[in-house]
Predict the structure.
Amino acid sequence: MQQYLEVAIDAAREAGGLQRQRLWLEHDIVFKGATDLVTEVDRMCDSLITERISRSFPDHDILAEESGHQAQQSAYKWIIDPLDGTTNYAHGFPWFCVSIALEIEGTVGMGVIYHPMMDELFTVIQGEGAFLNGSRISVSGRGPIRNTLLATGFPYDRTRENENNFENFVNFHMEARGIRRAGAAALDLAYVAAGRLDGYWECKLKPWDVAAGQLLVKEAGGEVTGYSGETYSIYNHRIVASNSIIHEEMLAVLGRNILPG
Ligand code: IPD
Ligand code: CA
Ligand code: CA
């Protein structure tokens, strides 16, 4: 696993360096949807990371947000968000990261999240714990929910679809000390793992948003499920991640407003 981790770290640091260098330059922006955009840096980082991985492990599958699925029928699948927090990035708001995970026979076994503006590298290997810049991290000991800081996000189709997370946001805001919508799902999860946030929920995420982060939370002693407490898979579209102390309370808040689907 160590050899995979090293390649992921090198690729994440290189892509993050590029993001840092180009942040406040003018960007070439293309719209994937009304509010869902992509910059030239998302694409450059996608190529950089996928090329590095396929050079090192030519037989492995790769699923990357901007370049799609390179299927080789391998038991190993790299899952990559080359730039999580693109809306922030396009606006020069310095809160974004690189997320790289490796799924082996359907289970995420390794993950890396790199936050270039803070030079913070989160790493995790299943069964070996979660780390930030080489030091072990663990979830917070905070609870009940009224003493906690939570995070969430809203889907790109929020103006057109019923499941827009608005009602859950209001319900949680009545319960928690505070809620942040910082704009990078992978970092929200890494922050739960590091005990800087106590809980996080979101819907309509993609595997690359969550693959590395959900393993960080679990390995840091937290809990990750679907909205009804069901076993979580990165292919589910609803996630709740917490320090485990407030997990039941979070599920109860979400339970007031479970939509079909
Ligand atoms: C987005 C961010 C955001 C979340 C969105 C994601 P992107 O990823 O993680 O925090 O709320 O749903 O799609 O598009 O910046 O990679
Ligand atoms: Ca993302
Ligand atoms: Ca992205």
Notes: The chain has two domains: 2-136, 145-257. The domain at 2-136 is CATH 3.30.540.10 (Fructose-1,6-Bisphosphatase; Chain A, domain 1). The first strand starts at residue 29 and ends at 31. The chain has a mean pLDDT of 95.
